[in-house]
Write a structure and sequence with these properties.
Number of strands: 10
Radius of gyration: 19 Å
Structural class: alpha/beta
Shape: globular
Largest sheet: 7 strands, mixed
Distance between the termini: 25 Å
Order of helices and strands: HHHHHEHEHEHEHEEEHEEHE
Number of helices: 11
């Protein structure tokens, strides 16, 4: 049995068991499973390096290790949520959110009739925000990484689409994305995941990083609005969903210049969330192109972004996952 097939059967087992486990026990088990994964996963070093850039400490420091451990625990909880979401009623999904802040920003952007690009990150539970917005009557389409084998992708897709969210494979036709914006709907894209291994070199939190810019390209090309949204997990495993005010994009027609101007503004908002809640960033791939720690210097030509450390606005996957 190859790795993809093993993954498929693992997901099916999780989908069969998770709905039968009460949430209190399920989250307790996920917390402990995440702690075990933190100790044995080869991805631990990557997470610690990413967190080290966020908090400005060495990857091996006690604080970085504590935060990285919680990242693994939060990701295990996200999988528990994913495996049981299709079995939840709409009322139960809504009850998992304590508060939604800033829906008026979405309504204001959609009132112009040009659609909306909703950029988020692998922060908290990135699936949940889309599920909840769909239950509030918004039509949301999200390009997603095309998992293999195909039946694994279709199974995960069915779980994620169980409450009205729509997923399309990132390596397929993007016509559904343009159709969705033309119909004045929402398209969700990730601002931290380079699915296609492309991206823009920027200075992020003091060091050069390669991050996607597809959400900006799409908004500028189509005239759609651009808004950032984050779903933060609370200690009781409910969530606060924060919708930031719309980004005022420059629209000179010189797209490369406009992206270079807008991207630091976008990433500065993301940086505020990371610095305030670093344990919420459930991301397991390298972001920065230089090591963290004293003496690390930015490459020439990287545009500064996200260097401010203020707390997130009170207005509150992948180019997909």
């Amino acid at each position: 049995m190859d790795r993809g097939e093993l993954g498929y059967y693992t997901y099916r087992l999780g989908g069969a068991l998770a709905p039968r486990i009460p949430p209190r026990l399920g989250y307790w088990l996920a917390e402990r499973f995440g702690a075990v994964l933190f100790r044995v996963s080869p991805g631990r070093a990557i997470v610690q390096e990413n967190i080290a850039h966020v908090v400005g400490l060495a990857p091996g420091s006690e604080r970085v290790q504590h935060i990285a451990r919680q990242v693994f625990c939060n990701q295990a909880k996200n999988y528990y949520d994913l495996f049981r979401v299709a079995a939840l009623t709409p009322q139960q999904v809504r009850a998992s959110v304590r508060e939604i802040r800033g829906l008026e920003h979405i309504d204001r952007a959609l009132a112009r009739g040009r659609g909306l690009v909703l950029a988020t990150a692998h922060f908290g539970n990135f699936d949940l925000a889309g599920q909840v917005l769909a239950l509030h009557g918004y039509r949301v389409t999200a390009p997603a990484e095309h998992l293999r084998p195909e039946r694994l992708f279709q199974y995960v897709r069915a779980q994620r689409e169980s409450h009205g969210l729509r997923f399309i494979p990132i390596n397929g036709s993007l016509r559904p994305v343009f159709r969705a914006l033309h119909a004045n709907e929402i398209v969700g894209l990730a601002l931290d995941r380079n699915v296609t291994d492309e991206g823009r070199l920027v200075e992020f939190l003091g060091s050069p990083a390669r991050l996607p810019d597809g959400y900006l390209k799409l908004a500028l090309h189509t005239g759609a609005g651009l808004i950032l949204c984050f779903a933060r997990r609370l200690p009781d495993n409910r969530f606060v969903i924060t919708v930031e005010p719309e980004i005022a994009l420059p629209r000179t027609g010189r797209h490369e210049d406009d992206i270079a101007t807008a991207m630091p503004q976008v990433l500065s908002i993301f940086a505020r969330y990371l610095r305030s809640y670093p344990d919420q960033w459930v991301y397991f791939q390298p972001v920065w192109v230089t090591p963290s720690g004293p003496g690390a210097t930015a490459e020439q030509g990287a545009a500064p972004a996200g260097s401010q450390g203020a707390g997130p606005s009170e207005h509150v996957q992948e180019n997909a996952r």
